[in-house]
C-alpha cells in the first residue's frame, strides 16, 4: 500500500494516475453519525474502538467474559478495537445491522498509518474508561488497573485483517506487551497467509456448507466458499505455528445442522481449539434485511447438545479433541486439542509473559510453548459453569424485580402515611 498518498481533505490519488480514493468513514457521513451514536469512537478515517459490556461488568466485580474463563483475559484490561470498520460479509447475526462499510477484497480508501490507529485506539479506550468513574459499584483498584491495557481483541466490527498494515499494528501491540486476539472472517486468504505471529488467531466458521454460508454470512465475494477453503488450508500449513481457534456462532434455523460437515472442516484445518457460542440477539432490523428473531437464539442447553454431538463426531474419526471449558453466562463452550491436556489437567489459559519472552527471543515457537493451567472453576462441568468465584453474579431480571418490590413497598408506605395524616386531620376537625 505504499502507493497510497495521504493528503489533507477527503480524497487522495493513487500513483499519480488520477484515481481518487476517499475516507472510509468521513466525519460528515451518515455512517460516522450512526456508529458514534452506537458508542463507537472513530479513529482516523477507518478504525474504531468501543467499550465492551464485559469491561464494564468486570470493573464492577460482576464477572468477565468467556475469554477470561478460557484464556485468562481479564475484561477490565482488554481493549476491543478494529483497524478496519469495513467487512466483506453482512452476517445475519452481526450486531451492526449493516451500518458499517462493506467491501470485497481490495482496499479502496485512504489508509491511516498504524501509529495513528494505535494512538487513537488507546486514547479512545481510556477516554471511555474515564467516563465510568463514579458509576455505582465500580471497584477502584480495577478502575486504576484499566488504564494499562494488557489485551487487545481485534474483533469489534469489520475485518481487521483487511487493514493493509495489520502486521505493523500487531507489532506495536506486542511492543507494549499487549496480547493480540485477532478474528478474521476467512474471506482474505492472501492476507491470512502473510499474517505474522499473534497471540491467538481466530477464524469464523459460520456454516458447514456453501449453501448455509451464503445464507448466514451474506458474503460479497462470489467465490466465498473457495476463499474459506483456502483459509482452512492456510491454517493447517503456513499458519500452523499459530495458536488457532475456530469460532462457531450458532443460529437456530441457519447453521446448527450437519455436524459431519463441521467435522470435515475441523479435520481439514486442525485448529488448536474450537469455540462454540450461541448468537446474541441484538434486535431485528428488517430495513437492513436482518431476519433474526428471538426464536433464532439457542438456549445454553441447545449449545451444549450441539457441542457434545460435534465432539462425539470428531472423536469417532480419531481426531484428538475433547470439551475443555465453558462459560454458561456467555453461552460459550470450548473444545480443545487434547495436547492441551497436560498431566491430566487442561491448559487452555495463556502464559502472557512467556508469550512475549518467546516473541522477543526471535526463535520459532508454537502454541504449546506458552500455555497455563485452566482454573477448576472454568473447566467443563464445573459447578460454577465458568463464572469466576472472586466475582459476584448479577442477575438483571432479579435486580429489576427487587427494585420494583422496593418501589412498591415505598409506595405502599407513602399511601399508608397519607391515610394516617388524613385520619388525623378528620379527627381534629371532628373534635372542633
From TrEMBL:
It comes from the Eukaryota. Pathway: tRNA modification; wybutosine-tRNA(Phe) biosynthesis. GO terms for biological process: wybutosine biosynthetic process. Residues 71-320 form the Radical SAM core domain. It catalyses: N(1)-methylguanosine(37) in tRNA(Phe) + pyruvate + S-adenosyl-L-methionine = 4-demethylwyosine(37) in tRNA(Phe) + 5'-deoxyadenosine + L-methionine + CO2 + H2O. Residues 412-432 are annotated as: Disordered. Its EC number is 4.1.3.44. GO terms for molecular function: 4 iron, 4 sulfur cluster binding; metal ion binding; nucleotide binding; tRNA-4-demethylwyosine synthase activity. Its cofactor is [4Fe-4S] cluster. PROSITE patterns: RADICAL_SAM (PS51918). It holds the Pfam family Radical_SAM. Keywords: 4Fe-4S, Iron, Iron-sulfur, Lyase, Metal-binding, Nucleotide-binding, S-adenosyl-L-methionine, tRNA processing. It is an enzyme of class 4 (lyase). InterPro entries: Aldolase_TIM, rSAM, rSAM_sf, tRNA_wybutosine-synth, tRNA_wybutosine-synthase. Belongs to the TYW1 family. PANTHER family: S-ADENOSYL-L-METHIONINE-DEPENDENT TRNA 4-DEMETHYLWYOSINE SYNTHASE (PTHR13930), S-ADENOSYL-L-METHIONINE-DEPENDENT TRNA 4-DEMETHYLWYOSINE SYNTHASE TYW1-RELATED (PTHR13930:SF0). This is S-adenosyl-L-methionine-dependent tRNA 4-demethylwyosine synthase. It comes from Candida albicans.
Amino acid at each position: 500500500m505504499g502507493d497510497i498518498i495521504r493528503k489533507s481533505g477527503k480524497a487522495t490519488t493513487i500513483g499519480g494516475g488520477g484515481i481518487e480514493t476517499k475516507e472510509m468513514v468521513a466525519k460528515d457521513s451518515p455512517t460516522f453519525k450512526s456508529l458514534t451514536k452506537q458508542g463507537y469512537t472513530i479513529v482516523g478515517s477507518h478504525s474504531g474502538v468501543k467499550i465492551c459490556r464485559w469491561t464494564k461488568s468486570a470493573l464492577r466485580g460482576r464477572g468477565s467474559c468467556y475469554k477470561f474463563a478460557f484464556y485468562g483475559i481479564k475484561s477490565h484490561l482488554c481493549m476491543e478495537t478494529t483497524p478496519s470498520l469495513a467487512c466483506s460479509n453482512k452476517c445475519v447475526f452481526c450486531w451492526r445491522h449493516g451500518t458499517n462499510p462493506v467491501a470485497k477484497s481490495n482496499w479502496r480508501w485512504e489508509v491511516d498509518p498504524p501509529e495513528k490507529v494505535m494512538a487513537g485506539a488507546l486514547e479512545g479506550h481510556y477516554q471511555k474508561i474515564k467516563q465510568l468513574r463514579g458509576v455505582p459499584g465500580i471497584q477502584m483498584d480495577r478502575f486504576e488497573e484499566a488504564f494499562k491495557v494488557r489485551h487487545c481483541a481485534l474483533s469489534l466490527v469489520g475485518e481487521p485483517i483487511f487493514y493493509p498494515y495489520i502486521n505493523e499494528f500487531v507489532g506495536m501491540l506486542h511492543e507494549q506487551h499487549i496480547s493480540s486476539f485477532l478474528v478474521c472472517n476467512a474471506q482474505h486468504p492472501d492476507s491470512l497467509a502473510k499474517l505474522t505471529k499473534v497471540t491467538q488467531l481466530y477464524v469464523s466458521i459460520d456454516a458447514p456448507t456453501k449453501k448455509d454460508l451464503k445464507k448466514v454470512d451474506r458474503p460479497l465475494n462470489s467465490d466465498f466458499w473457495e476463499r474459506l477453503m483456502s483459509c482452512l488450508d492456510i491454517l493447517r500449513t503456513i499458519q500452523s505455528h499459530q495458536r488457532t481457534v475456530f469460532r462457531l456462532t450458532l443460529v437456530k434455523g441457519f447453521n446448527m445442522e450437519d455436524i459431519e460437515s463441521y467435522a470435515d472442516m475441523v479435520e481439514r484445518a486442525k485448529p488448536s481449539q474450537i469455540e462454540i457460542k450461541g448468537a446474541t440477539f441484538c434486535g431485528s432490523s428488517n430495513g437492513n434485511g436482518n431476519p433474526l428473531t428471538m426464536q433464532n437464539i439457542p438456549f445454553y442447553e441447545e449449545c451444549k447438545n450441539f457441542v457434545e454431538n460435534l465432539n462425539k463426531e470428531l472423536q469417532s474419526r480419531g481426531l484428538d479433541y475433547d470439551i475443555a471449558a465453558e462459560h454458561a453466562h456467555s453461552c460459550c463452550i470450548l473444545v480443545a486439542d487434547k495436547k492441551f491436556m497436560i498431566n491430566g489437567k487442561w491448559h487452555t489459559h495463556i502464559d502472557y509473559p512467556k508469550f512475549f519472552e518467546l516473541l522477543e527471543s526471535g526463535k520459532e515457537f508454537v502454541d504449546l510453548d506458552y500455555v497455563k493451567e485452566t482454573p477448576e472453576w472454568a473447566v467443563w462441568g464445573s459447578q460454577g459453569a465458568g463464572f469466576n468465584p472472586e466475582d459476584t453474579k448479577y442477575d438483571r431480571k432479579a435486580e429489576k424485580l427487587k427494585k420494583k418490590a422496593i418501589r412498591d413497598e415505598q409506595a405502599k408506605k407513602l399511601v399508608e402515611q397519607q391515610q394516617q395524616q388524613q385520619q388525623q386531620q378528620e379527627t381534629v376537625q371532628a373534635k372542633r
